[in-house]
Design brief:
Elements: H1 7-13, H2 15-23, H3 28-37, E1 44-47, H4 50-67, E2 71-73, H5 76-80, E3 92-97, H6 103-114, E4 118-123, H7 129-133, E5 136-139, H8 152-168, H9 172-188, H10 194-206, E6 212-216, H11 221-235, E7 239-243, H12 244-247, E8 261-264, H13 271-283, E9 288-291, H14 309-327
Parallel strand pairs: 1-2, 1-3, 3-4, 4-5, 6-7, 6-8, 8-9
């Protein structure tokens, strides 16, 4: 596909600038996080769909590893379809949404607030219904996003969650990782992951690829699932995002030399498991491209904070997907059958 630069490409390029305010100390995320630290919660519920749900997975790992609180993923249809609001008295309920306009997310937030939870909306539109339904609002401030495939709002959703937890848990190392993130995001714009997109292209040309796979663990799981979503959304390619631990179970049987794999690896206690999986799959002839560690085959900036690096990895993955979509003649800004705001009940 030829022509002017896509909206998706422009919005990916904006990521470092729009993420910078959230990474800076003393912002709204820090204020809310400090306020949360003064309270006690029995558990946390995170609510979001699609890319926002993937940001919720990242937030779950941050809360559970830094604060020791159990985090549950909300099922909005329990409220909207089954009419049974869950018992959340005293809990923290976090809704994550780019538009803040899906009726099910609004209804779930309202039900949580009425049920005695403290509700927090992490949204790009601070005037949205979801924001209005919540006690607290953490604006993403990513600016207007016109491409159907969300990129800069997704990155900011993950960054906002990390900034919130850094203040809530008084985690100085995480705060320092966030402070370094804008410059690293800027450098990530130059990372060329075309070796991975070439694997996708070869499988497509051979007409033998049944699916693509993305894998990682821990703090990387949310970004893993997000990249798989973007492959399906933008390249119209069935794609699955699995924990490296889960991939060793049933899904392993579906992998072959016709199923390209992308592995994300951050430098933490779970890294050896990802390294071992990459080596195992390669020895069996599965095409694997890896970011990070001794098995890494893709350009990388070197290890930073392990909770921040998977956020960083979204940038070159997004760029590779956008470029591959245009190479195939697809419009990355307008995938068929999709709209920018998805409203579900």
């Amino acid at each position: 596909m030829s022509g002017p630069e896509s909206l998706m490409a422009r919005e990916i390029a904006e990521v470092p600038a729009v993420a910078a305010p959230l990474c800076a100390p003393g912002g709204e995320a820090a204020r809310i996080g400090t306020a949360l630290a003064r309270r006690r919660f029995p558990f946390v519920v995170v609510c979001g769909r699609g890319s926002s749900g993937h940001a919720g997975v990242h937030l779950r790992y941050l809360i559970e590893t830094r604060l020791g609180l159990v985090v549950s993923a909300a099922a909005p249809s329990v409220v909207t379809g089954y009419g049974r609001p869950p018992q959340v008295e005293g809990a923290l309920f976090v809704v994550i949404s780019q538009s803040g306009r899906s009726p099910d997310l609004v209804a779930a937030t309202q039900a949580a607030r009425e049920g005695g939870a403290l509700t927090l909306a992490i949204v790009n539109d601070a005037a949205s219904p979801a924001a209005g339904a919540a006690d607290l609002v953490l604006p993403l401030e990513a600016g207007p996003e016109r491409a159907v495939a969300a990129t800069k709002t997704v990155v900011n959703s993950l960054v906002a969650g990390a900034a919130l937890v850094a203040a809530w848990a008084e985690d100085r190392a995480l705060a320092q990782g966030l402070a370094a993130l804008p410059d690293r995001l800027g450098s990530a714009l130059s990372l060329d992951w075309s070796a991975w997109s070439a694997d996708l292209a070869r499988a497509n040309l051979a007409r033998q690829a049944t699916a693509a796979f993305v894998t990682g663990r821990g703090h990387g799981l949310g970004p893993v699932r997000e990249i798989a979503l973007k492959l399906s959304e933008t390249l119209r390619l069935p794609a699955l995002g699995y924990s490296a631990a889960e991939l060793r179970h049933g899904p392993r049987a579906a992998l072959s030399r016709h199923t390209p794999v992308l592995a994300l690896r951050q430098a933490d206690a779970l890294a050896p498991g990802v390294d071992d999986l990459v080596q195992e799959l390669r020895s069996d002839g599965v095409p694997v491209q890896a970011c990070g560690g001794p098995a890494g085959s893709l350009p990388w900036l070197g290890d930073g904070h392990p909770a921040c690096d998977p956020i960083l990895m979204l940038v070159p993955a997004y760029r590779a997907i956008e470029a591959e979509a245009r190479r195939r003649g697809f419009d990355p800004d307008a995938p068929p059958g999709l709209t920018k705001v998805t409203e579900t009940l």
